[in-house]
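Data availability (excerpt). The following record was deposited with the supplementary files.
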Amino acid sequence: MGGGGVGSDGKRGFVFVEDFQAEEDGIAMAEARCLDAIRSALENLEDQLEFFHAIKSQQRTERDAAMVRLVQSRSILGRRLAEHQGKKYIVIEMA
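Predicted structure:
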């Protein structure tokens, strides 16, 4: 029976058990290749999920910063409108 794995040197390899007949060895190799392909697909999926998580966090941070700027702008606009003490300006009426 064979299986892919990462050795201590960081390289992927297969472990072979002696006393396999040629047919069993072929089946084991096919199974090992299949398992290796599945592992590679899962590693790729994990990388993509980490990437999407990082993007989501960045977007959340940018959204929060934009909301803070919006609140500050509204506050400044409110103070400036209050300073006009009822004076009629077309910009104020539009706001």
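Summary of structural features: The chain has one domain: 4-94.
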